[in-house]
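seq:
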Amino acid sequence: MSLKEKIDADYKDAMKARDELKVSVLRLLRSAIHNAEIDKQRALTEDEILGVIQSEARKRRESIEAFQQGGRQDLVERERAELAILESYLPKALSREELEALVRETVREVGALSPRDMGKVMGVLMPKVRGRADGREVSELVRQILEGSQTRE
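struct:
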């Protein structure tokens, strides 16, 4: 069963169970996938669907931060519940140690020596971690490791 089929099946199950929150989240997700397909004028691949889910999850994380700063705990709780539903469709996240090992391996693989090589590292690394790590966190870790390797030379 493809990811899109799983989302559709879960949407139907949520409707039957009258789970309003899950129906709402999955309706928005299906709509975002549909809109992306219209933009690309073709069906999305599994990786592209994962990208749409990640984008929706990122929006929820940003909303949580904004609502926390605004003191709206009621909205924070709703966004967290929505985020949990979206994350159930994403692959298991990498731990900090697993991510660091992957970054170090990729730095060796591409022969990166300084922060100027960050683009090369990110280009090879991001497909390996897609859906399993936040891009901002990956970028930060790559920069730290490249800056550290520069000082050791």
